[in-house]
Amino acid sequence: MAMLPGVARSLGVSVPVAGHVISAYAVGVVIGAPLATLIGARMSRYWLLLALQAMFVVGNAASALAPGYGPLLVIRFLTGLPHGAFYGVAALVAAGMADPARRGRAVAGVFVGLTVAHVVGVPLVTWAGQMLGWRAVYGFITAMELLALVMIARTVPIVAPDPQGSLWRELGALRRSQVWFTLATGAIGFGGMFCVGTYLSAVLLGVTGVPAYVVPLAQSLWGVGMVAGNMAGARLVDISPTLAVVVTLAASTIMLCLFSVCAESMVLVLIVTSLMGGIIALLPALQTRLMDVAADAQGLVAALNHSAVNVANAFGAWLGGAVIAAGYGAQDVGWAGAGLSAAGLAIFLTGLLVQRAGARGPV
């Protein structure tokens, strides 16, 4: 995203058209998460992680060498295919390596890169893209992916594949109502963060009236909040994944409402922006909840969690745009985002009531 203007200029297309490259990656995540997991259902998680990581290496190297817009679009779609499965499998591996009492912190550790990226990675890539060009950045990313491949090979324990593992057992998780309630919670509830995050710059520049140099500061504050939220949420997950989901969504609803209320004050909106980053705590909470409700078919649902997050990304961004296009103020994306968080909380609480009532069929 940070390199989008440079990509557009280099390939001779408009910025909105170049944005389809990002959408292609997201579509790859949604499709690839269940597909890659099902294909690797009988593989050792060690070898599956290595295979998925190797796909990242090849995909990012090919991105650096893409001859034009069309090939880059296809390459980014293919590079997105292993994304959801990688994070899902990595979360399961981390949880299995940790003491049960620290399972939440282990899962959150898998996602720490996503949070630190918003503090360090986004500004760094923005600078590098401007100075060196987007192809050089993809080359650097490829080198990092190779390093990660070596680290996985050296540190992840080799565990024999589950002899009972199969495509049909993984698909069996989809018969459990609590799996669907949890996935729907993420697909809707997470949308609030993306509804506001997508239009954060527009609000700061058009409503708050901050100088342009404040926007990167706000993005970094958001990232700091994500790091803190990920760490705090991990400890809450270790107490109770269910409680972590409820608390995070309730707090998210409040913070997103405050964003709209405080949008005209630079100091207040920056404080609220940093607090909103804590919504990321929902990711390890939902991931752990899915592990608990999926029983012996955890691989598929762990990957589907990331498909749900990408659905939330697309839907949240669309809803925020629809609010602005309808003539409301840009700050009103906060109210729309709060509605999504509240809806996600309602879905999750409904699922708990269904589970408690002992509804017929597997839960």
TrEMBL record:
Domain of life of the organism in this record? Bacteria
Spans through the membrane = 20-39, 46-66, 72-94, 106-125, 137-159, 179-200, 212-231, 243-261, 267-286, 307-328, 334-354
Which keywords does the record carry? Cell membrane, Membrane, Transmembrane, Transmembrane helix
Compartment(s) of residence: Cell membrane
Any one Gene Ontology molecular-function term assigned to this protein's record: transmembrane transporter activity
The answer to keyword RNA-binding applying to this record is no
Q: Does the keyword Transmembrane apply?
A: yes
Which membrane topology describes this protein?
A: Multi-pass membrane protein
Domain Major facilitator superfamily (MFS) profile: where? 1-356
Query: Major location, coarse class?
Result: membrane
Q: Which GO terms describe its cellular component?
A: plasma membrane
Q: What is the protein name given in its UniProt record?
A: Major facilitator superfamily arabinose transmembrane efflux protein
